Every structure is written in structure tokens, then in C-alpha cells.
Amino acid sequence: MRGAASETMVERDFFAHPQALVESTEVGPNSLIWAFAHVMEGARVGANCKIGDHAFIERGAILGNNVTVKNGVAVWDGVTVEDNVFLGPNCVLTNDPNPRTYITKSGGALTPTRIRANATLGANSTVLCGITVGRYAFIGAGAVVIRPVPDFALIVGNPGRQIGWMCVCAQKLPLPASAPLGASVTCPHCHRSFTHAAEGLSLLVEPQESR
């Protein structure tokens, strides 16, 4: 099924470029799918998503609402991307830790990967399969993520290492990565307050203007 001009696509209330290939029947309203992108049958795409040129969403992949998939990104079977995630250009997600071209795997034989809500994956970053990237985590450009990422953590390098914490407002927080549990910090930019908990940072106080 191609393009946005067909009656079916109008009924579903999303836009697909005439040169996109959209086979899925589970694409949410107001999503945009651009040229040469391919959304396979059995893929799930939420509302208000943006899928860039040459992106590929495989059957079994799940995108939440308001997900941005930049150009050249492939989201494979077994990968779940929660709401408000940004997948930067050419970032890499995987679903098989030991692939062979002559061994076919699907379903439960694949290793699931989850990108939690509001996280950012920078351009050309790589997330190995079986890993969960925490809420609001920020993966720097070119980083290779080989272990689970805490909420709000800032990860850079190869192999990826945590060098700090990122706020909701996408600014680095003045708290060292090694801060002890229970440590607190307030963002100097947006004035949100956090404490260091077991899952990463936990948001304590929203700024007055955002309430």
C-alpha cells in the first residue's frame, strides 16, 4: 500500500509519501512517513510519529506515540520504542546477539530491546540487543551501548560510559555520574529537581510554570 492519496490512508488519518511503502494496518493518526521508508505488515506505529527517508520498521517492531525516527534508521522485530523517543540519523538497534546468515530466528528466539519514554539516541549510536535504555536517557552521537542505561543518564563513547545526567529540558545537570544514592540536584536551566534513586534519577519537583 503506497502513498497518502488512497481512500484507506485518508480514513486512517496519517500521511505517507507516495514513494513510501506502508504495509502495516496499525499506524496511528497524524503520523508522517517519508519517501523510501518501509513499514512492514505487523509493525505497530503510534500517533504523531515522524519516520524519515529510508527508515525501515520491521514486523514485530513497536513504536509508541510521538516517536521521531530519523533517516536511515531500522527498527527490528523485538524492539520496543516507547512514547516521545528520538532516534537520531543512522542509529542502530539490534535483536540478535549471535547472528548467522544460515540460522533464521524469529519471535521468542530474538533478544528484545526497549527504549523507554523520552529517551534520545544520537546519530550513529548503537544499542546492543537485550538492553533497556532508561527514561529521558541521552545517548551521545556514535556511542556504543553495551549495558542497561539508567533513567536520565548521559552516555558517550565506545564502549559507552556514563559521564553525567541529562535533564528533561535536554541540558546537562550539575551532578557527577558517580553521585551516591540519595544525592539531589536542581537544573539551573528549568529548575526541575531530582534525586538519585535505584533506577537512575527520579524527578521530584516540576518548575512552577509547567504545572
CATH top level class name: Mainly Beta
Average per-residue pLDDT, rounded, comes to 93
**What's the arrangement of strands in the largest beta sheet?**
1-3-6-9-12-15-18-20-21
What CATH architecture label applies?
A: 3 Solenoid
CATH topology: UDP N-Acetylglucosamine Acyltransferase, domain 1
Describe the largest sheet: 9 strands, mixed
Radius of gyration (CA) equals: 18 Å
General shape: globular
The total count of helices amounts to 1
* Number of strand segments: 24
N/C terminus separation: 43 Å
CATH superfamily, by name, is Hexapeptide repeat proteins
**Structure class:** mainly beta
Brief descriptors of the model:
211 residues, UDP N-Acetylglucosamine Acyltransferase, domain 1, five-stranded parallel beta sheet, 1 helix, globular
Notes on the protein architecture:
This protein is mainly β and 211 residues long. The protein has a single domain, classed as 3 Solenoid (UDP N-Acetylglucosamine Acyltransferase, domain 1). It is built from one helix and 24 strands. It has one helix at 7-12; strands at 15-16, 21-22, 32-33, 38-39, 44-45, 50-51, 56-57, 62-63, 68-69, 74-75, 79-81, 86-87, 92-93, 113-115, 120-121, 126-127, 132-133, 138-139, 144-145, 153-156, 161-165, 184-186, 193-197, 200-205. A nine-stranded mixed sheet has the order 1-3-6-9-12-15-18-20-21, with no helix packed on it. Strand 20 (153-156) and strand 21 form a beta hairpin. The chain is globular and about 50 Å long.
